[in-house]
Design a protein that fits this description.
Layout lengths: L3 E5 L10 H13 L4 E7 L14 E5 L2 E6 L7 H13 L4 H11 L4 H10 L5 E5 L4 H7 L6 E4 L12 H5 L5 E4 L2 H11 L6 E3 L11 H7 L6 E5 L8 H14 L5 E5 L12 E5 L3 H10 L3 E3 L8 H8 L4 E4 L3 H10 L2 E4 L2 H13 L1 H18 L2 H19 L1
Helix pairs in contact: 2-3, 8-10, 11-14
Length: 393
């Protein structure tokens, strides 16, 4: 039976090519194949200040109805920092934490008011990203018909007191990883809330290995990073480790970083930054790489890791991120490191042992096929949606 579903997410658009927002768009597009889907979101495009960018009101994005609501005011830098310092470092009460959610944004009370007036028009509400205003306040409008996709990372926000009650409100929770589920259970005691580890599928394009190197004039074999080039993604530590490795070892290869750049990258003959590239270029880059490196400290599920395995490449990941270490261990699809010594050792093994990285890549692909193809993912969504629908009825 087809359902009317509202997907609620802080930003939405074809120009937003990563993270929870891309996750939400892909899920909305697959749900729309058998259901009537409407996306409720804000007019914001950037995630730092939430400036209004898109026009208010309805539009179509890939044939899905999207209704956008104005962000009442952008993130107020000084006020946000003041509130954040209080809730994370000083004595405070829940009112301070509620204030943090509003200052974190995107502050769009018109979206919440719309939900209050129209929630009966939808059979189910699916909220993405627990930490944002749109989810925290929106989910509480009709929790009995709400599914939550938390995309929670192991950072201080998840420990705020207001989230202990919040995570017990949804009718069901769709987790990204075993580690995310265990962390939320431990911190909030919400084990009685129906839930399942699902993650997301990947829209895989066939990559042509030589095409990326030819297009960007890359002459040497290369190790690849895909994502925001940002300190928050561990790129500063990655580059530091790579510079030390280039100085001390004799392996002749490049580090290629593709994605939007949010930090300074030192000029070096072995570091190449093509910038933001097309989806086809990205899959060509993965296909042509020796292996991928993922240095992030915080993840609920790393889509770049799934893309890596989808194209049968091994991964080298930061073991300080329990999600990355857990995924790589279960898949046996790569190696991991805690410090420079381990980075140097694992980097050397993957660079010099072709059979090892090929075997790890194949095992990663097998794990991807078992857990992250779209039929597998959407069958889990359908199962949880039926549970919630039966509870509402």
């Amino acid at each position: 039976m087809s359902m009317k579903i509202a997907v609620i997410v802080q930003r939405y658009g074809l120009e937003i090519n990563g993270g929870a927002e891309l996750h939400a768009r892909w899920i909305a597009e697959h749900l729309s194949q058998t259901n009537q889907v409407t996306v409720l979101t804000t007019c914001a495009q950037d995630y730092l200040y939430w400036f209004n960018h898109y026009p208010v009101g309805p539009s179509l994005v890939n044939n899905i109805e999207v209704i956008r609501f104005k962000v009442k005011h952008p993130r107020r830098g000084r006020r946000f920092v003041s509130v954040q310092n209080r809730v994370f470092f000083d004595e405070h009460d829940q009112r301070d934490e509620w204030a943090w959610v509003k200052e974190n944004g995107p502050y769009a009370p018109a979206l919440i008011n719309y939900l209050k007036k129209h929630q009966r028009d939808y059979d189910l509400l699916i909220f993405f990203s627990y930490r944002y205003y749109t989810t925290f306040y929106g989910l509480q409008v009709a929790p009995m018909k709400s599914l939550l996709v938390p995309t929670a990372e192991e950072d201080p926000v998840i420990s705020l007191a207001i989230y202990r009650q919040f995570f017990n409100k949804p009718a069901a929770i769709i987790y990204n990883s075993i580690e995310e589920q265990a962390m939320i259970h431990e911190l909030t005691g919400n084990g009685s809330v129906p839930g399942e580890v699902v993650g997301v599928g990947i829209n895989v394009l066939e990559g042509i290995p030589a095409r990326f190197s030819q297009k960007y004039s890359i002459k040497r074999p290369y190790v690849l990073y895909v994502g925001r080039i940002d300190k928050n993604k561990g790129c500063d530590r990655l580059i530091d480790y790579m510079l030390r490795y280039f100085e001390r070892e004799q392996d002749d290869f490049d580090l290629v970083l593709i994605g939007g750049q949010y930090m300074n990258v030192p000029e070096h003959e072995h570091i190449i930054t093509p910038g933001f590239v097309s989806e086809q270029d990205k899959f060509d880059a993965i296909s042509g790489s020796m292996f991928m490196v993922i240095p992030s400290h915080f993840e609920s599920l790393c889509m770049a890791l799934l893309e890596c395995w989808a194209l049968e490449k091994a991964a080298l990941v930061n073991a300080r991120c329990r999600v990355l270490e857990g995924q790589v261990t279960r898949a046996n699809g790569g190696l991991f490191y805690n410090d420079y010594s381990e980075f140097q050792e694992t980097m050397t093994r993957l660079l010099r042992q072709v059979e090892l990285r090929n075997a790890l890549g194949k095992q990663g692909r097998d794990y991807f096929n078992q857990h992250y193809t779209w039929p597998v993912v959407m069958a889990k969504y359908d199962h949880l949606m039926r549970i919630v629908q039966n509870q509402v009825i």
